[in-house]
Please model this.
Amino acid sequence: MILPAEEVRDPAVAVFAVKLSNPAKTPAAYRLSAVDAGGNLRCQFDTPNLTVPANGEASTVLRVTPQTILPAGELVHTLQVAAQPASGAGPSLSGALRYIQTAGQPPSLAISPASQASPGPASYTVTVHNPRSAPIQVTLRAYDQGNQCQFALEPPSLSVPARGQASARLEVRPLGQLLPGETRRPFAFGVAGYASGDPKPFAAEGSLLLVHGFTWRKLLPLFIAFFVLLGLGAVAVIALLYMRFMQ
Model:
């Protein structure tokens, strides 16, 4: 087994090239595996089963991902790599790799616009930025201190690519209305992101200023009354026509 001599330093993923050589005159098939003593890593081969030709070589890629992001400092992981003959015949091969996990920059969250004024519900864009070299899954949750708003997040969970971003739509609906003589009322809220493998969430804050103005919701009772009256009028007209033609 031929393993790279250099160690890999990265906060979120380590990639190693693993090569097997076969000096025999017949092909050899191997099953590859990798483990770390602390059980803190996910190890995955692109091709876990290799067939090495006679007097030849075959290679694959080992990707190592830590279960949690390191908040500070460095952590050295030693991986044991093994190649077992698939048929049970032949020598077993093994070796060691070093992965130095460095501190990872946490993802961040932004709300756009940060604040706005509206006579009713308002829409915002929530964007998660992922500075890491591996994709992350983030669950979003909106909240306010006084439970004075209703929130709708679409979608509530985001798959954020490595060194990329993803967005969701947030609707903030105040539960109360302006009182007589009240000209405006501020509402403060926040959105927290929970990334898989991270012990602490990351968050951003926004605000909504409720003001007087036109909203379609205020016209809803008028629309309902209009259609009710329209229906009653249609019934009355049909009844009159029926009575006239039946005479």
In short: The chain has a mean pLDDT of 87. The first strand starts at residue 8 and ends at 10. Residues 8-102 form a domain with the Immunoglobulin-like fold (CATH 2.60.40.2310). DSSP finds one helix and 17 strands in the chain.
